[in-house]
Amino acid sequence: LLAQCAREMHSELFIAPRPLVDLMVILTQPQPDELIHDPLAGVASFLVAADQYVQVISEDWSEKAASTAEVQDSGIDEELEEKPLLMGIEPNLTWQRLALMNCLLHHLDYFPALPVQWGNSLLLGKERPLPPADVILSMLIFTQKQATPEDFLEYIYRHLKPGGRAA
Q1: Would you write out the chain's pLDDT as a tens digit for each of its 167 residues?
Q2: Closest Cα to residue 36, out of 90, 85, 109?
Q3: 112 preceded by cis ω (within 30°)?
Q4: How far apart are CA 60 and CA 22, in angstroms?
Q5: What is the 3-state secondary structure (H, E, C) of the chain?
Q6: Helices 45-68 and 73-80, packing angle to 10 deg
């Protein structure tokens, strides 16, 4: 559906192949309590894949914990309820709306905040401080002439927590 929208709009929307997205998520290994950020969210492919990855590892953890029969009921439910913190920024309003649709289709409804905000990540980082991210995932596709790959690499470097991971 997203690819069809991109063709119909004759836009330069680039949707990363899902195997590539999955590989980048697997390599960075996001965890439930980490902030995952995509400064050029596009249609939120990385955020959706990261959320799905965290759900899978959480299920694996819960199955292992339940099989030990030493799990106390008080703490495990709270830990399993944790979701990754997702923050995407998309400068194109149409793509941001497609990203929100994609997030809703994959049950990423983080009310009251939207998982993908509309704005320019390079400017937002300068106007108001963004929280440092544990994981930054992005396809650096440049459709705007104002930004260069070096600008975004600097953005990624400055917005990662110490020990953070990026792909």
Answers
A1: 555 655 565 555 567 788 889 999 999 999 988 999 999 888 899 999 999 999 898 876 656 555 544 444 434 334 434 556 899 999 889 889 989 999 988 888 665 678 888 988 877 756 677 889 999 998 876 555 566 778 888 888 889 999 999 99
A2: 85
A3: yes
A4: 18
A5: CHHHHHHHHCCCCCCCCHHHHHHHHHHHCCCCCCEEEECCCCCCHHHHHHHHHHHHHHHHHHHHHHHHCCCCHHHHHHHHCCCCEEEEEECCHHHHHHHHHHHHHCCCCCCCCCCEEECCHHHHHHHCCCCCEEEECCCCCCCCCCCCHHHHHHHHHHHEEEEEEEC
A6: 170
Kindly calculate the radius of gyration of the chain based on its CA atoms and give it in whole angstroms.
17
Give the pTM: 0.76
Asked whether the beta carbons of 133 and 164 are under 8 A apart, the reply is yes
Here the tokens at position 88 are: 């995407």
Alpha carbon distance 73, 69 (integer Å): 10
* Amino acid in the structure at residue 68: T
- What is the CB neighbour count within 10 angstroms for residue 134? 21
Q: How many residues does the chain have?
A: 167
